[in-house]
Design a protein that fits this description.
rod-shaped, 5-stranded mixed sheet, 4-stranded antiparallel sheet, 699 residues
Length: 699
């Protein structure tokens, strides 16, 4: 016979699921010191808090279950550990009260939270409840449905273990044999399956140290949300863990959750071009740079050859400055018989570009021809080693040039199809040809370049800007001026590391700089005088950014100085300054850009060895720096600050050599001034000229 025992528990109702018995709340706040065994005294409040029976004997939580924020983290009673880790149970804090959930087959019969669910419901002394079976029914049996009964004998499928009728396949107290209990581990729910003990972590706990001894980690926190190691990202985010999922409460200012993944928090800065002010709010303009400052999208400088003629930002820089309807500047319309060049509308024989080397100069005409004058010791005039010329002579074989450059003693041109030709000094393989390192008195093709749109030349190296924004360099590389991450000459062109968006380019003696599409300036090579502008004097074999320049429209390099023309028409320079060539009123070198003071708004700039010049928006020329040969053009040889070059009022382009300067006039002619040795001014003589003189021999 048997007597079923149901619902008559001293402290609660028995559950048929794994969590077992859920007991009514035990009020702790009224339990004053001294404390019962398993608890310790919180002296500050004269109250008892649980002691960790399986830990180091200290308080189980820095924020015990008391409805107070004891640990000052802005939360109260957080996590299961607020009530400790009592045996055979999981504990949670509900309304400042510790509530036990007993493991299957156990009950809390003594109402002490610290020792958990200490009573086995399969024992005759507490069979199914906190009551002893009557003497007539001396055995206790589990009917398999979570209910326990007092009986006088065991069924055939049960085994008598002490005073219990036990299913050895499922009994956690007698798993696989009498008196073979499954261990009671902190935070672990133990069960018997097929006569073997199975351990699983209690809800909201994890065995994160992997020792299988205890489930020691609270997995309801942002450090472990729902699983071990599943941390919520808290960078730029206020977040909490709820039901095993990271929940974003708020993002920091200027940050957003743009991928809709709560696990990685607010991952996106809202000050980027992809997310400007809001997620997926792209900041971009046609033919123009863009910037996102403080979440506001702003149009920057127009791409080379484009302009914002209608003043509207929605359509970006809409006007093509190479068209005859807006040639070089907004509103300029080319007439019949003229074509549009960078300097404006030009007739076929007009000079549209000038370049200057150490001791020579060259001009490009509208129709693609190139003429040079001055010294020819290395074949830099390109006419077959006819010797120095005091007037302009034609370079052999070039009739389709679209860009031009002059180095110390060599020159290069880009042809209409993207090929590059070079001539002159080749001691460092700066001509880039397949042949030996001998000087070339007529142009030779640079190998492997078929997509160039611009070419520049330094003392003994050359670089080309490619149509896709990459830059390729060749020649001398003793200072890293080729930008390929190494030292050592490069006979064949190789791309510069990290530069894929160049929109303008120039070369100094042993350094090179590019204007990026964003308006930033990247430089590489020699830096002893700070000419790279990165705030150091360290030589760089790969590109570094010049400080504080983010809106450059053009770049000009001298021997050991660099200057940028910015979107607001100001000029900023850095590097060597012994002759005042930086234009800041001082003579100390600068490793970061400084404003050139006392000059008008610029439309074009150029740098020589130790001087610099600009063409202002009205066509006047202003120069500053060294003037020993009259290269500033003011009629004197006194070096110093900015001054007007002669009476030029219609200049459209400017070039500077070692000690001479040349300008293109609006009507298509050229004038030069400064050092005249070897005929480098092209005026028919070889003497210095401190005022502009006309170049002879041009069409």
């Amino acid at each position: 016979m048997s007597r079923a025992v149901r619902g008559k528990f001293l402290l609660g109702l028995c559950s048929v699921v794994l969590v077992g018995c859920v007991l009514p709340p035990i009020e702790l706040t009224g339990r004053a010191c001294p404390c019962i065994d398993g608890w310790i005294c919180d002296v500050a409040r004269d109250r008892c808090v649980p002691r960790d029976s399986f830990g180091d004997g200290g308080v189980t939580s820095p924020d015990p279950c008391n409805a107070r924020d004891d640990d000052g983290d802005g939360r109260v009673d957080e996590g299961p550990s607020a009530c400790g880790t009592p045996p055979a149970a999981s504990a949670s804090c509900v309304d400042a009260t510790c509530v036990l959930a007993c493991a299957e087959g156990f009950a809390d019969c003594n109402a002490i939270v610290a020792d958990g669910c200490e009573a086995s419901l399969g024992d005759v002394a507490t069979c199914g409840a906190c009551e002893r079976c009557p003497d007539a029914l001396p055995l206790c049996v589990d009917d398999g449905a979570g209910r326990f009964h007092c009986v006088d004998r065991c069924e055939s499928d049960r085994t008598v273990c002490g005073s219990s009728c036990v299913d050895l396949a499922t009994s956690a107290s007698h798993c696989g044999g009498c008196d073979r209990p499954c261990e009671l581990r902190p935070g672990v729910a133990s069960s018997c399956v097929g006569g073997a003990c199975v351990y699983a972590c209690a809800p909201d706990l994890g065995d994160c140290d992997g020792d299988m001894e205890s489930c020691e980690t609270d997995i309801t926190t942002v450090d472990a949300c729902g699983a071990c190691g599943a941390a919520c990202i808290t960078d730029h985010t206020t977040v909490h863990c709820a039901e095993g999922e990271c929940v974003i409460d708020a993002c920091e200012s200027s940050w957003g959750d743009c991928d809709d993944s709560r696990r990685n928090g607010c991952e996106a800065s809202l000050r980027t071009l992809a997310h400007c002010g809001a997620c997926d709010a792209e900041c971009a303009f046609e033919h123009a740079a863009a910037s996102c400052e403080s979440g506001a999208c702003t149009m920057g400088v127009c791409d080379a050859g484009w302009a914002d003629c209608d003043g509207l930002t929605d359509n970006g820089c809409e006007s093509d400055l190479s068209s005859t309807g807006t040639c070089a500047t907004c509103g300029e319309v080319c007439g019949a018989g003229t074509t549009c060049e960078r300097v404006g509308c030009a007739a076929p024989d007009d000079v549209v570009e000038l370049v200057a080397g150490d001791d020579f100069a060259c001009a490009r005409l509208t129709d693609g021809r190139v003429l040079c004058w001055g010294a020819d010791g290395s074949g830099q005039l390109g006419n077959g080693s006819a010797g120095a010329s005091v007037t302009a002579v034609s370079v052999a074989g070039i009739t389709d040039a679209i860009d031009l450059a002059a180095g110390a003693h060599h020159a290069c041109a880009v042809r209409r199809g993207g090929q590059v030709l070079c001539w002159g000094d080749n001691a460092a393989r700066q001509l880039g040809n397949n042949g030996p390192s001998t000087d070339q008195a007529v142009p030779v093709a640079v190998r492997n370049i078929t997509d160039a749109v611009q070419v520049v030349a330094g003392d003994a190296h050359s670089c080309a800007r490619r149509a896709d924004g990459r830059v390729a360099c060749w020649g001398a590389n003793d200072r890293g001026q080729l930008g390929n991450g190494s030292i050592g000459g490069g006979a064949a062109p190789g791309n510069v590391d990290g530069v894929t968006d160049a929109r303008d380019l120039d070369a100094g003696d042993a350094h090179t700089c590019a204007v990026r599409r964003s308006g930033g300036v990247a430089c590489w090579g020699a830096n002893a005088r700070g000419q790279l502008g990165d705030g150091t004097t360290m030589q760089r074999m790969s590109a570094v950014d010049a400080a504080s320049i983010d809106d450059a429209r053009g770049i000009a390099l001298g021997a050991e100085l660099s200057c940028a023309l910015r979107a607001d028409t100001t000029v900023w320079c850095w590097g060597a300054n012994a002759s005042g060539q930086l234009g800041d009123g001082r003579t100390a070198d600068r490793s970061t850009p400084v404003l050139v003071v006392g000059v008008p708004s610029a439309r074009a700039i150029a740098c020589g060895d130790q001087h610099a010049c600009l063409v202002d928006v009205e066509g006047a020329v202003t120069c500053w720096g060294a003037n020993g040969s009259g290269q500033l053009g003011d009629g004197t040889t006194s070096s110093g600050g900015p001054r007007a070059a002669g009476v030029l009022v219609d200049a459209v382009a400017i070039a500077a050599g070692a000690s001479h300067t040349c300008a293109v006039r609006g009507e298509g002619s050229a004038k030069c001034w400064g050092g005249g040795a070897d005929g480098r001014l092209g005026d028919g003589g070889s003497i210095d000229q401190p005022l502009p003189v006309a170049v002879l021999g041009l069409p």
